[in-house]
Amino acid sequence: MTVKTPGYSLLREFGSLAIKIFLIIGAILLIFTLVYGLHYNVEPGMHPAIKDGDMVMYYRWDKNYKAGDLILVTFQGQKQVRRVIAVAGDTVDITEEGLVINGALQQEPEISQKTERYEEGIHFPITLGENEVFVLGDARENATDSRIYGPVNIGDTQGKVISVLRRRNL
Question: For the sheet containing 159-165, what is the strand order?
């Protein structure tokens, strides 16, 4: 003998489940639209830290950058990941010896290529203004970075990289 509960309906249960799934998907989309972002890296400027084909997750709301942070910037419509090497008030110079910040030659053991000026780039030394950062790619010989386009206004950045998913060779 089967007992039916008053008001019970399989259709109502499926409708309730569909609404819950819709709300969860909506919340995830909202979070990844307003708080976090994903970027598929297609350029070699940050090799070997971030390679062509890697997926980068970034946090949009934290723009209190410090030297060493990886951030997402846009140059000529292309998003690119770059490393912050100097912040507001710092003076950046590139000499024959290498990268100089506030008069001190920088030791960058994780960077294998020499930091040099580009002929068509900006003029050095340069002192960063309020809300500006100076960014460089880790692949110093081929990266399009602040040596070309100058300091980046913090308001023009996308956010701070918080995770890298290595998608290559999986």
Answer: 36-40, 55-59, 159-165, 70-75, 78-87, 132-136, 152-153
82 domain-assigned: yes
The model's pLDDT over 39-69, given as tens digits with 9 standing for 90+, comes to 999 989 998 889 888 999 999 998 999 999 9
| Element holding 92 (H helix, E strand) | strand 91-94
* 49 located within any domain: yes
Whether 156 is in a domain gets the answer yes
Domain with 98 in it: 39-165
Q: Report the sign of the C-alpha dihedral through residues 24, 30, 32, 35, in that order.
A: negative
- pTM to 2 decimal places: 0.84
Q: Are 147 and 117 in contact (CB under 8 A)?
A: yes
- The answer as to whether 92 is a domain residue is yes
User: How many whole angstroms separate alpha carbon 114 and alpha carbon 140?
Assistant: 7
| Number of domains the chain is built from | 1
**DSSP single-letter state for residue 50:** S
Can you say whether residue 103 is alpha, beta or left, with left for phi > 0 and alpha for psi between -120 and 50 degrees?
left
pLDDT digits (tens, 9 = 90+) for 12-32: 899 999 999 999 999 999 998
